[in-house]
């Protein structure tokens, strides 16, 4: 299944246990593009080169440069917002970083519906979300809460 | 308990500001492989409840202003990394919006796990738009620890 963000997900569509996923390869040039936005806005804490420089990363004991944690958050958010559709809204994302995402890692972006409740007419869906690399490790795990509209009658 | 400057706890500082631009949204989407037309196609977005293109909700993560603001001067560890974040998205950001970040250190605590002692510095960053409305709140945990060379 490929999610594009154009298809609207309605609250009634979300069933407990539903799973969905996308993929992403953390190519160095994509990390560099993300960092370029950061440099234009302010700065990212990359003075030791951990996000961009092989020698800097190795000096820190890392096999390869790593993806900024906040970029990993953005990657998993893409999955959630594309699933929710244009009228869906991400409300919260709570995530823990278990290990770094390395440049070149091939990631599965995964989500599982764990709760769905109607709160005063607002459909709220809770998702377990995580990134999984090709080594079977989960560098990021967390929970997202999205609001979905009810299907028009 | 680890030594740190307790006077910074709960004191909010202005960290800086940035403007959400079409170019930044385009580049951010390219970096993520994002193709959602809500962020990239003005015609599509105009037909949604937003009435026009908006930015992906976490675009502010590109401007985290880490390294600015109060420093609790934690006297521990030779390495630090981002342990976790809790993000609350409050309002959409649009091209042309100017977002100002305000940050404070909310907590410093230590914990000993299987890999030894760690010190957590928790910061709250509040992102406010040019209309004085909060668009996002972020609680970040930075972990300080000792790593053998």
The CATH class of the domain at 6-19 and 60-145 in chain B turns out to be: Alpha Beta
Helix and strand sequence of chain B: EHHHEEEE
Helix content estimate of chain B? 10-25%
The largest sheet of chain A is: 5 strands, antiparallel
Counting helices, strands and paired strands, the structural category of chain A is alpha+beta
CATH topology of the domain at 6-19 and 60-145 in chain B: Thiol Ester Dehydrase, Chain A
User: What radius of gyration of chain B results from the CA coordinates?
Assistant: 18 Å
Major sheet characteristics of chain B: 5 strands, antiparallel
Q: Tell how many strands the DSSP assignment of chain A holds.
A: 5
- In the CATH classification, which architecture of the domain at 11-26 and 67-148 in chain A applies? Roll
**Relevant CATH superfamily of the domain at 6-19 and 60-145 in chain B:** Hotdog Thioesterase
Oligomeric state as shown: heterodimer
- Average pLDDT figure of chain B: 91
Written description of the protein model:
- The complex is a heterodimer of chains A (153) and B (149).
- Chain A is of the alpha+beta class and 153 residues long.
- Chain A has a domain at 11-26 and 67-148: Roll (Thiol Ester Dehydrase, Chain A), CATH 3.10.129.10.
- Chain A is built from three helices and five strands.
- Chain A has helices spanning 28-41, 54-59, 69-84; strands at 19-25, 89-97, 106-119, 122-132, 140-148.
- Chain A has a five-stranded antiparallel sheet, covered by helices on one side.
- In chain A, a hairpin with a 2-residue loop joins strand 3 and strand 4.
- The radius of gyration of chain A is 17 Å and the shape is elongated.
- Chain A starts with 18 loop residues before the first strand and ends in a 5-residue tail after the last strand.
- A five-stranded antiparallel sheet of chain B has the order 1-3-4-5-2, with no helix packed on it.
- By secondary structure, chain B is mainly beta.
- In chain B, 13% of the residues lie in helices and 40% in strands.
- Chains A and B meet through helix 1, helix 3 and strand 2 of A and helix 1, helix 2 and strand 2 of B.
- Strand 2 of chain A pairs antiparallel with strand 2 (79-89) of chain B, so a sheet runs across the interface.
């Amino acid at each position: 299944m490929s999610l594009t963000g154009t298809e609207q997900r309605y609250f009634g569509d979300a069933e407990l246990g539903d799973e969905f996923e996308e993929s992403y390869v953390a190519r160095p040039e994509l990390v560099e593009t993300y960092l370029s936005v950061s440099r234009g806005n302010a700065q990212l804490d990359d003075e030791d080169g951990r996000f961009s420089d092989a020698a800097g990363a190795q000096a820190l004991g890392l096999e390869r440069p790593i993806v900024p944690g906040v970029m990993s958050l953005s990657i998993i958010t893409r999955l959630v917002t594309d699933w929710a559709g244009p009228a869906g809204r991400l409300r919260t994302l709570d995530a823990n970083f278990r290990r770094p995402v390395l440049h070149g890692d091939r990631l599965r972006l995964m989500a599982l519906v764990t709760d769905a409740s109607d709160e005063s007419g607002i459909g709220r869906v809770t998702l377990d979300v995580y990134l999984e690399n090709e080594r079977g490790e989960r560098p990021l795990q967390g929970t997202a809460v999205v609001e979905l509209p009810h299907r028009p009658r | 308990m680890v030594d740190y400057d307790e006077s910074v706890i709960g004191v909010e500082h202005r960290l800086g500001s940035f403007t959400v631009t079409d170019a930044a949204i385009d580049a951010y989407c390219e970096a993520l492989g994002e193709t959602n037309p809500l962020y990239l196609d003005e015609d599509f977005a105009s037909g949604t409840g937003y009435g026009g293109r908006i930015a992906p909700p976490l675009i502010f993560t590109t401007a985290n202003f880490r390294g600015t603001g109060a420093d609790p001067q934690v006297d521990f560890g030779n390495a630090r990394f981002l342990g976790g974040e809790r993000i609350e998205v409050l309002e959409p950001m649009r091209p042309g919006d100017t977002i100002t970040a305000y940050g404070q250190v909310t907590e410093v605590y230590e914990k000993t796990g299987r890999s030894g002692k760690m010190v957590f510095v928790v910061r709250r960053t509040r992102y406010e738009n040019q209309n004085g409305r909060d668009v996002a709140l972020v609680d970040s945990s930075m972990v300080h620890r000792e790593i053998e060379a």
